[in-house]
Amino acid sequence: MPTPAEIIAARLNNENLYDDAVAETLEVPANNEEASAKRSISDEVAFPTLGGKQSSSPSPVPQSIPSWGPSMKTPVSVSSTPKSTRSPTPRVVGNGMKSKVSTIQEAFALNVEDQLNVARPDFIKILTFVKQETKTSIECTTSQHTKKRTFLITGRPEEVKLAKRLVIKKLTKPVQIAFTVPAKLRSRIIGQGGKNLKPIIQANEVKIEIGDEEEEEVEQELADNVAADEDHDDIFSKTVTVTIDGDIEGSKRAKNQILAIVKEETKNLSTKVPVDEIIKPFAQKALESVVTKYADLDFAIPDYKSEKNNIVIVGDRDSVIEARIEIRSILEKLADKITVEEVPIPKVKHQFLPIDQILEEVNVLIQLPKEGESNVKFIGEKSKIKLAQEQARKTTSQYKIEVLDMSKAHRGNLKHVKAVAAHLNQNGVFKEIAQTNDVKINVPEIASLSDETLSSIPIEIVSKGDDEKIKVAKKSIVNHVNRITPDQTQLIQDIDEFLLGKVDETIKDVAKSTGVNYVVLGKNITLFSEKLETEEAEDFEETNAAEDSFKKVDEALNKLRELATKLQTVVLEVDSKDQQHVSGPRGTTLRSILSSVEPNSITVKLHSNGEKQSDNEIFIRGFRESVSAVRKDIEQVISDAQEFKDGYTATIQVPANVISRIIGKSGANLISLRDEFGTKIDVADEKEDNKAKNAKVDVTITGIKRNVEETKSKLASMAKKWADETLVRLRIEHQYHRRMIGPHGIYINRLQDKYNVKIRFPSSDNVPSNFADAPKTKDEVTVKGPSKGVAKAEEELNELYQFEKENGFKQVIQIPTKAVARVIGKAGETIKDIADGSGVEYKFNRNQEEEEKSGFAEVELTGSKSALKEASKKINDIIEEIENFVSTTIKVNPIYHRDLIGQGGSVMKEIISKAGGDDIPRNKHFRLLNIPNEGSGSDEITSQGDKQVVEKIIQQIKDIVALKEASVTEEIDLPKEKHRLIIGPKGTIRHSIQDEFGVTVEIPRSNEESTIVKIVGLPEKIAAAKEKIEELTKDDWNVSIDVPSVYHALVSEHGAIFKQLKSDFNVEVTHGNLTRQASKLSSASTIPTAPEEAYPTDSANYLFTIVENDEELKDDGVVIPWRLKGEEASTAKAAKVIEDRLANAKSAKFTGWFYSAQSSAFSKIIGPQGSKVNQIRKKSNTFITIPRANDKESKFIYLVGSEDNLKIAKEEIQRLL
């Protein structure tokens, strides 16, 4: 009888347990020597990684790496789920009943290629160990043909899970999975302190290593500066390799978890596009099309007032990259159009320049002169600048300015007039006058009015070319000023100057409630009454009321007067020489003293008695408590100065390992302390015994005692903070530095971030550094930071150093002399970028004579094998591009240039694509195909680039031109309503005709009257296209009836007949090219003015009048075609109805008028849904028009027909009423 494992094995026999959704590298090392020889630069042995454990078995080297980068739009998730069988196991309890317990069974298989070669005794030992360790039951079967082992594990869920992990771990070969992730997300994958990566490592029992960075190859500009720049600032374009070592199941699960983090982080992208200051004002308008096109993206485009010089784009990564390319292209074209012209404009007129208006209307920016400049700048397109200047001139010439000097008012009482000017400005009177008279009024600021030396008060009145408005405004200002006389105000001057800052908070509420306004200018407080300022007084008691209000405000100020009693003024007699101690160097001591009391509670003036300068006195004024404290501090400072005439000295011991930080770069920290406290700080020389672990260095502080004590306190705080910091110096030969630093410093930054240390390498040009922890020689590296972090960083650096010593491989590449400049790049940018990107060292072996003979130069590369391979590939790619580079020029008649470009450059893009230019960066396309601008007069088209691509482009151009030269034009007269049949939705049908037959179809726009469709192409192709067009536009109607336009309204019954024909016969009616005219005739108001006899002469409610038509309807010769669409039998019936109605219309010689005093009576005639009126029409063969409520003749039903028919209609209407 087969075992359960054998049964399950049969089910799994044709299944592959480890199929993946994504291809990946799964390898097993062949032997220890090979694995050791190919060890990666990021191998755990050489560079321990976060969470990794050193394994006794070598780590295999990956052969392939799934790509991540700009070409990958979203990360691909990996999933692998072994088959399992789960079922609850029943067990018998004491009462003989069965109950279910949480026991499951899980089956899985191991392919022979994944299994370790384990002897049977060892295999049994392993399964026995797993059973005992997990308390599970394990059955195993082996296929005789495939050697696949199938396991069935029974037990509790957690125990089964653990047993499966142990079986896979102990019976499968170790594997290595390698894949790439964005370098930008490296820290996100690891997490702070490894919080993201550690759980993945621990849960899956794997080793994870993040290794070398892989960069996109970037095309560099030619050495002669002929190149375009494409700045790939996609933060996810650079990648690092992630290598996972472990058993197959754990490795895959770890990969899935890492890619889940990547997927979440790479959904969106934020990027910046720099915009020049000169084109920034025009960027928003120029980029409107891009913003509309990419509506799902967020754009932040600065205007000319903004200080920002970057356009920020946020949103979906791929859309952001596309939008960025378009924006750069637009900005480059815009920059070529912008020019600057300077114009001298008087400064007084600058305020009138309509900067925003001209920018909006003309798209030209007016820039006012900056400091040191005199002219106004006009920035924009040259063709628009003259218009902007003319508009600016017209605007400024419209304004006139007159200055009114208020100082002459009130007999020159400047103190009062200044207060009035501030009051009128503060209360908005000047603003009201300006608005009323449509002028602008400029008033001096409060600070100017507070200046006691100010002798004039100029009020500027500005008008837009209207002298009368200035006169009226000036008169109004004079009246307001004259109305406020000194005796209508109250001047308060007894508030202590020290308390003037508290006036507003003291009287604000009282002044508001009593209708009093106030102005504080210098030492003066002036009160104004709102009531006295009104033009019309209600009684003669207003003056007394104002006095009462002033009194209440004045009483509110008693609070400050009482507070003034708490003020104390002290004048200390201190020798002028001793006051320098009170001030301290650069005022440091006095600032320290004042900081010990409440802010704004005291004023201290040295060399003053409060009224005038006094060399040997110090003026102190403020609240008693503050004055007392400050006085005490000043006296103590003077006492200390007398006691320590040579200066006070104090010493503090600082740990030797932080003394360099105390000093700072070039003594920066000490200088900062000296400036803050005004003390002299001396650090003792380093002694031999200072090298001991707990060594201390004496720091001596000299100066004013108060300042010295504060300096000492600050130093102690700093020393405590930096006490644990240490510095080590490592000897590492300089030739290994570049590779240890890694591309763009990736390895060193990793260590610095990991251990919170600072690692310094000597500069490449051996320029001495000012940093205290800088390397002293070219073969020295320093590490500084917390002691534990430094120790770990030092250990990893030493391991990396040893690895580099064993992997310093060299390679020499021969470069054709014509490609040397391109390989080097401008100022060496290209070769430096290659070296930084791959992590190699380079050295050019230049010998001019040898190069002239051989035609080659040599460059020597040093690095790891993988780095050499990457660098040599980039160099060889450049060489290949130079050797295959050609430039071809062909002359093409300018009339065909537009055809070669196509709408929006579509044809030009298609030519490049067909030639194989899709892989070439878009910024290089202008070289592949350069067509002269329209109007340039040039007929030369140039193609530069790879030889094969250029040849294909030139051939395509010749073919297109030959086709155009052989083309002819034919015209088709096609009714306007059929144009849509060959256009299709969004032009799809026209495009398909053009593509299918190789012709161009030109169709008139909908607003054009022309009906001519032009077909351009070869004669045989035009014939085929015409057949297609005729097929698409053939008539689809059965019957056509010509109805003269004079009868159209009657026959169509104002459009109602069309609905009736559709309802009765399922027939549609069209009118060809006269559809619009027919529609107008149907919808036109058709009830003419009723004749006088149609109105009743008495008070009758109803009157039916029949009138013979004076003259026949005038035929204008226009015939409206009625084309009937539908089944043949139906259209025949519909045609009969129309012909009968047309005959009735032609025979209608009489007009009927039915008058009703109440239009509501018409509803009886109309009936439900028009049923009754339709019966009347049918019975009487008359045309009946029911008026609308807004018709002029809304009380008449209008009828047309023969006299007999109208009488029948009359009888029917009267019967209904």
Automatic annotation (TrEMBL):
GO terms for biological process: chemotropism; meiotic telomere clustering; pheromone-dependent signal transduction involved in conjugation with cellular fusion; silent mating-type cassette heterochromatin formation; subtelomeric heterochromatin formation. Residues 55-92 have a biased composition (Low complexity). It comes from the Eukaryota. Residues 39-172, 173-263, 337-397, 566-639, 646-720, 724-802, 807-880, 884-962, 966-1034, 1149-1217 form the K Homology domain. It is found in: Cytoplasm. Transmembrane segments: none annotated. GO terms for molecular function: G-protein alpha-subunit binding; mRNA binding. The keyword tRNA-binding does not apply. The keyword Chloroplast does not apply. Its main location: cytoplasm. Residues 29-96 are annotated as: Disordered. Keywords: Cytoplasm, Repeat, RNA-binding. SUPFAM superfamilies: Eukaryotic type KH-domain (KH-domain type I). GO terms for cellular component: chromosome, telomeric region; endoplasmic reticulum membrane. PANTHER family: DODECA-SATELLITE-BINDING PROTEIN 1, ISOFORM A (PTHR10627:SF31), SCP160 (PTHR10627). This is Vigilin. The lineage of its organism: Eukaryota, Fungi, Dikarya, Ascomycota, Saccharomycotina.
